[in-house]
Each structure stands twice: as structure tokens, then as C-alpha cells.
Amino acid sequence: MIGTDLTYDHAGFTCTGDTIMDKTTSPPPGDMPPEEFRRAGHLLIDWITDYLSTGPGEGVPILPGLAPGDTAARLPASAPATGVEFDRLFADFREILYPGFTHWNSPRYMAYFPSSASGPAVLGELLAAAVSQNCMLWRTSPAGTELEIRVLEWLRDMIGLPASFFGHIVDTASISSMLALAAAREYHHDLAIRTRGMAGRPELPQLTVYASEEAHSSIEKGAITLGFGVDGVRKIATDEIYRMRPDLLREAIEADRAAGRHPLAVVATVGTTSSTSIDPVPAIARICDEYGLWLHVDAAYGGVAAIVPEKRDVLAGCERADSFVVNPHKWLFTPMDCSTFFTRRPEVMRAAFSLVPEYLSSDRDADPALVNLMDYGIQLGRRFRSLKLWLVLAWFGSEGIAERLRHHMALASELAERIEAQEGVELMAPVNFATLCFRFHPGGAARGSEDEAVEETAVGDAGEPDEEAYETFNAAVMNRANESGEVFLSHTKLKGRYTLRLAIGHLRSSAEDVRAVWELLTTLADELRRGQ
Ligand code: PLP
What we know:
Elements: E1 7-10, E2 13-16, H1 20-25, H2 34-54, H3 86-97, H4 119-131, H5 142-159, E3 166-170, H6 173-187, H7 193-196, E4 207-212, H8 217-225, E5 233-236, H9 246-258, E6 262-269, H10 281-291, E7 294-298, E8 323-326, H11 328-331, E9 339-343, H12 346-353, H13 386-421, E10 425-427, E11 435-440, H14 467-483, E12 490-494, E13 497-503, H15 511-529
Parallel strand pairs: 4-5, 4-6, 6-7, 7-8
Antiparallel strand pairs: 1-2, 3-9, 8-9, 10-11, 11-13, 12-13
């Protein structure tokens, strides 16, 4: 007679007077019916097929011209109490959400670093969601664990890292680099930070890490998170092409040691975010050896270029790194998120992160062949990201990937040649991969015009526009280009100089896309010079 008078609200049904026994013996409310799933799934696959093959569609801007709050204003303020049919939800996806998408999956997305969702990767995401694996322990997904390890061995071999490197997948390069700095801290085991922490220890010297002034902001964020503080990051100046200067690195380490600080790690970058410069890893590795420092290489963007045999040398010296990150979710046709972390010191990673409570232990833990991937980072639950990466690497093959990367690099070097030959625009950095840094001269001659500079610009003593004039002019070119909806570009500053960036990396970017984008930018610069 338990629960006969129960009133029970569940999943939109009100059940009065049922016994608990009745509820447990009746069928569960359950999932979407299989036939509805199949029908909706076919609809989605058709939609995705069109989206992947033709892009956002005629007249759809790559960067939506919305104001903050525009999308939210069209969404219901609270969740529905009773279920809404799928067709209605799919219509909302197309009508409310789609206009608010920035089309990363457009061949004219050239901002930051592009990221393509390729067909195999999209299918991988779908399958991974369906089988709902959690790759935290070997036994919570034997196949997920072993596929992840194997696929990272493939990628490691494809980019030419030695077989001594062990890899696992992390969500982003930011977290990969933070894990690397935490491992570096553990590598300096005498500091006993894992056991004793850092707070309230006046005897603990300030811990310092070194990265170039061009390193990604995630290095500083990692240092902040780990308690080294912003002051614990030494930003080493770069040479004229934005590479870390090893002589200044050595000086900084010496100065810190002399001042009683404790150098921990150096982060070198292969493919910096602003200019894609490549730090001199062999020289940096020698310094790390000499001072006993952990060397982490952030190759989040540039690392995949080593899949192209003739570009292998971009990773020269990386075999001496203690840890290394490269992001398939940048230039390896894998949608967010997928960052791969490699280390030749997996035992240090485990010493930093392994912690096994009773409820996660198993009687096979002593088996040396058993790997629990939760032991290599902070998070317990781990997505089945290796499935999409496996499909990408296997479906395209290393030669297929190399061919696509080579194509992007060829498009970039053709455009670089064109820029070099064109008046009124200059390249601001060498093109090491497929990203160009350039800026237009505010007062250059407009094409097709007999006039010299028509637009008034602030002119310095030497007749050269000042930095502010460059910034105003180039920001205007970029904003007009982005507002046109035809392209999405971003900017940076290199040694204080405002610079536009054009990153080629989408799977379907063609010579025609690059030509059309360049024509648009040049025309906009001309119009602005004419004061239009
Ligand atoms: N490192 C470099 C060199 C980058 O360019 C970026 C992002 O562009 C990152 C790290 C951060 O990547 P993520 O978004 O995966 O954290």
C-alpha cells in the first residue's frame, strides 16, 4: 500500500492515485520515438549536406550584423513545460539562431585562425554523441581510451614527433598549456607544491615562466590560474620577425636566479597568434637543458603544417620539448573542440594529476597495460573526441591532408607575391604558413586614379602618415569588409603597428575566394582614399 495517495508531477504528466508499483511496471516515458528520430535525422543530414557543400548561402553575411541581445530577444524566456515538436524547433534553429551565426564554416572566413567542420568530423561528432562514451577510465570506454591513444600516435607520427611522446586529447590549447605549466611545477618536485600548496609558504621563491612577447594570452592565464601570477611570466622580446630572442631569454633566467626567483618553464611558440612567427626552438631547448627547465611548445596553429613533408622543419627542435600542443580544431578540419597534448614525460603528468578515490578504483588498476586517461589532467569526464579525429585522419589520409594544407599555403604565398608587387600596401611579417599580415597605406594612390593621395591623412615630419592614421585607415577597411558580409577578417598589432590579418585555412577556400577578398579589400582602400 505504499504511496497510493501520491500526487506526482513528472515529464508533463500528472499522475494521481497511482501506486509506485504501477509506475514502475508501466513503460518509461522514454526518448524521442525511433521513427521520429529517423525522420528528423534525415532532415538534418540533408540540411547539413547543403550547408557543408555550399556554405552559408547567397546573401547570408559571414559575420552577422546583429546587436547584442538580438537573438536572446527572440528566444522564449523560459523552457516549455510540455514538449515542442521537432519540426518547430528546427524551424527556430533556421529562423532565430541561423541569422546569429558567425560562419566559421565559410571559405571566406579568414579571421583569427579558421576552423573547418569537415564531413568526416561532423559524422564523428554525431556518432560520438550517439554512443555517449565517457573516456575517463579504461573501463568506462575501452575502445574510446584505446582509439584516443592510437589516433594520437598517428598524429604524432604524421607531424614527426618521436615515438617517446604520449598523447591525449584536451578541449583547448589554453587548457593544454595550463596542464603543461602544472606539470612543469611538479617536475620541480622539491618544491612539494602538490602536497603543500603555495599559500602561506614564505620560503617558497617566486616561480617564473618564460614566453615571448608574442606568445598567446593563454600562457599568462595559465600562470594566473596556477598561482604564479602575472608577475611570474617573463615576456621575452622578439627579433624583427617576431621570434623569441634566446640571448634575452638566457639573460632573464640569469637575472631571476640571481634575484632568488625559481625559473620553472619556457613556452616556445610555433606559429604565433598575431604573425605566425616561429620561435627558435633548438636554441631554446638548449637553454632549457642547461637550466633544467620544462620546455613546452605551443604549436596550436602551426604544428599541423609538419604533416606536409616539405614543411617538417617547422618543428625542428620540438623533439626536445617536454610537452607540446597542436590543435586539430584550428587547421586540421576538425570542429571545436579538439586540442592534442603530447609529452615525453607522461609520468610527470601522472604525478601532477593522478588521484584515484575508492569509487574510481578497479581491481585491474595494477595492470601496466591499462591507461586511465583521467590521470593526465584535471577533468574526470572526458568527451569521445578521438572519434571525429580518427575519421578526419583516416578519411583524408596523411597525403590528402598534406595536399589541402599545401593548397592553403600556396594560396597564401601567391597573395603575398601580389601584395609585394602592389603599391599602397605592405606585408608586415613573413608568411610562414597560410596567414598574411599586411596593412594599406592611408595615402597611397587610389587605383584607376590620376591623383596621388586624395584623402587627408595625418602626416609626420618625414611625410609618412603616423601610426594613428594607419590604424584609423586600416580599421576602416576591415570594418567595411566585415560589414559587407562577404568576408570576415581580424586585426592585430605587431610591435605597436596596427596590422590586418588574413588567414586562409578553410577546407573549401579557393583561389577565387582569395582573389575576390583581395579585390574587395583593395577596392575599399581605394574608396576610403577617395574619401568615399
Ligand atoms: N596558442 C596559440 C598560438 C593560438 O593561436 C591560440 C588561439 O588562437 C591558442 C593557443 C588558444 O587556443 P584555444 O582556443 O584552443 O585555447
